[in-house]
Amino acid sequence: MSSSSPGGGGMSSLSPHGEGPSCTNRGLIPDKENPPPEILSWVSTFSRWSNAERLMAINQLINTCEPQQVRHMMQVIEPQFQRDFISLLPKELALYVLSFLDPKDLLRAAQTCRYWRILAEDNLLWREKCREAGVTDYCNSRDQYYRRRKHSSGFTYSPWKLGFMRQHNIEMNWRCRPIKSPKVLKGHDDHVITCLQFSGTRIVSGSDDNTLKVWSATTGKCLRTLVGHTGGVWSSQLQDNTIVSGSTDRTLKVWNAETGACTHTLYGHTSTVRCMHLHKNKVVSGSRDATLRMWDIETGECNIVLIGHVAAVRCVQYDGRLVVSGAYDYMVKVWNPEREECIHTLNGHTNRVYSLQFDGVHVVSGSLDTSIRVWDVETGACKHALMGHQSLTSGMELKDNILVSGNADSTVKIWDILTGQCLQTLSGPNKHQSAVTCLHFNKKFVITSSDDGTVKLWDVKTGDYIRDLVSLESGGSGGVVWRIRSSPTKLVCAVGSRNGTEETKLLVLDFEAEIK
Fold it and tell me: How far apart are CA 202 and CA 237, in angstroms?
């Protein structure tokens, strides 16, 4: 290598110790306009070296520098690599790159500059983010104010993004933000609320005081009281503008929810109507007289009677094609109502059947024998016996092959009914202290109520306890939560006691995201 290589005289001219030619003209302060001649000579030499020689020279140069000089190098070098590549790309490619960001990072990117913000408000981009998150409805009536809203700057906002943010804020309201004071709906005196329905803005409560009450979930006002039964109301269904109720007086009644008028009284059962399931214009009722009856709620006629159980029918499901019933005779039966025929008798339980779920393919039954059984509705075969609870399975909910079961042993379990595997047990130090009375679940949460006077929120995927949504002061001394119903933004709880420690009432909790 020539004397001008990194190991030769070319580097010595930059000796940091002031030796050789670098000592000349030290009285002058160098700047870009008047660089020392030896620097120009060194740069000229540097430019003639190969890439490997330049890298070696740079390494040696850095090793001789003090920290302050290295920091100066970084300040000079870093801007060379800072390029707004997003703004340089065609819009389609820029949006494709941004599509790989999660929503949180997309919101951060929007704060970079105006152009990035315009890109980050792309409606199709946020529609995809909504699809990934399972947000399907951004057109909520409360969002209409926002849709394509323009500020004075003329900036256009994505309605899909606003829908996503609303759903996120609703989830945070459920999960961690302070809970707003609930609306308190007082009624039914000191009687027990035996059944509860909630749809849209309408709440319907049934009681052993022989009445039902229709409430506004928005205002909390009692809109009307449905009077006519001569015995306690123990079952009800709500569909659109129709309410159907079943009573210890052995009748069903069909009511107009808007006017409160009783349109039909359905006679036929010879004992308490304990359960029912409404599908379109047909309702199937189960009674302590061991029979099931199918009624047309428009005409009030009963043309189908299903006879086969030998003890009280406790639960029933109807999907428009098949009827499934569970009874105190330990049996589950599958019926073809059109032919008044029992297709299958599902044997296996060794005690009373209290709860049922039916998705058209699988029948799931819960019993006092502590087991939950999964059956194939077409063959009648028992696919799985889900073991793990220690007492009566009081309530279940089935969605997309995921089953959540609540038990009198104070625990809640999450199951995969295809494999029979228990995915989670909701227990631990924050578990309920008494029997689970009711539950609901969605893609995010499980909501459970109990005789201990609490309503608890759990993470459906991890099984982790999140927090108490309701905790009655009388819990543990008589106060109970009998029933709960929920929507994406509201929770309705029927609470009271049998010993006078808690007034009978409904609590309505609102988790809607506020418009700002």
Answer: 12
Contacts of 59 (CB under 8 A, 6+ apart): none
Whole-number Å distance between alpha carbons of 203 and 257: 10
Beta pairing, strands 302-307 & 313-318: unpaired
Task: Report the distance separating Cα 293 and Cα 305, nearest Å.
Answer: 5
Global model pTM greater than 0.85: no
Q: Which residue has the tokens 């499980």?
A: 446
Contact at 8 Å (CB) between 97 and 68?
Answer: no
Contact 468, 159 (CB under 8 A): no
Tens-place pLDDT, residues 325-334 = 999 999 999 9
Cα–Cα dist 21/36, whole Å: 10
Query: Who's near 272: CB < 8 A, 6+ residues apart?
Result: 231, 234, 246, 247, 248, 250, 287, 288
323 forms bridges with which residues in the sheet? 318, 335
CB 472 within 8 A of CB 453: yes
Q: How far is CA 317 from the centre of its chain?
A: 25
pLDDT tens by residue, 374-400: 999 999 999 999 999 999 998 999 999
Q: Are 450 and 410 in contact (CB under 8 A)?
A: yes
Q: How far is residue 8's CA from residue 175's CA, in Å, rounded to a whole number?
A: 69
Contacts of 57 (CB under 8 A, 6+ apart): 6, 11, 46, 49
